[in-house]
Amino acid sequence: MEYCDFLALSWLMIVEFVLGLPLNLSVLYIFIFRFKFWKNKSIFLFNIVVADFLLVACLPAKAYHYQLGERRSSNKAVCKTLLFMLFLNRGASIAFLITLSLDRYFNVVHLGRRNIVKNLKKSPQISIIIWVLLLPLTIPTMVTTFECCNSHGRKVETPTHDITDTFREIVFFGQIIFPFIILVFCTFRIVNRLRKKTVGEKVKLRRAVWVVLSVVVVFSICFLPSTFARAVLIAVRLKEWQQAEDIVVQVYDSLMVLSYSDCLLDPLVYCFCNSGFKDAYVATFCPKFIQKKLQMCNFEYNFK
């Protein structure tokens, strides 16, 4: 990549940080002091906020290295720590977003049956278990033989190095592909259920549709493009097409920077997922005239 490309991406990360920090701080304030997430069964939503803070904390360091024209830090400890944090944020965001979608799926499609997810989301211990289970998936970023910048497809010196790279790619693609299949399935079933319901039941179903659709938007913008670009990058490297690789690397790096925007899009999920959070946020941070307009929109929406 040319220095001007690094510079442009660094400024994009700075914009994401400048917008993401106050947004997530305001969300955190609402969750703790106004909404009191532990009383409103919104522990999973709060965990997404925590994951977003991990991402926001990494952006200044990533932007600084890009300002210097470096894809990664020359300090191995810093480089691996940033990768660990980014992988952990990615995994946690996806895990809790899909869990929310499954909760809506069971509430709508299997209404009346026992909802395991609904019971699990009330327990903070389950959230801790999810974080602990995610830690082993980030281990490949901490192995001493791990090369930070897309090393799979290169000639390797040791079998261990190759195994580490392969495992990392399986994790990278698996944590996107399988959750996305689940998400598409949940969306299809909820929409199909909406068509069969009577008018009086449709308000709750529409909200469920908006929840899963908001998660689809996050996936479509933040996770799917970079995943597809990485698949192309690996294919190009295995074919040893050097000129094409230079172009694909630029595209991949750009889409990875775009993927950091999930810290800006996740609050949409919070609003669609829990009207109580949305009301608390609007009442705290929005001017009166915006509050009145939103109240009118909600009134008209509920009576459609």
From TrEMBL:
Pfam families for the chain: 7tm_1
Membrane-spanning residues: 6-32, 44-63, 83-106, 126-146, 166-188, 208-228
Entry keywords, A to Z: G-protein coupled receptor, Membrane, Receptor, Transducer, Transmembrane, Transmembrane helix
All copies of domain G-protein coupled receptors family 1 profile, residue ranges: 23-270
Coiled coil ranges: none
Major localisation: membrane
GO molecular function: G protein-coupled receptor activity
Membrane topology, as annotated: Multi-pass membrane protein
Family as reported in the entry's similarity comment: Belongs to the G-protein coupled receptor 1 family.
Protein name according to UniProt: G-protein coupled receptors family 1 profile domain-containing protein
Organism for this UniProt entry: Cynoglossus semilaevis
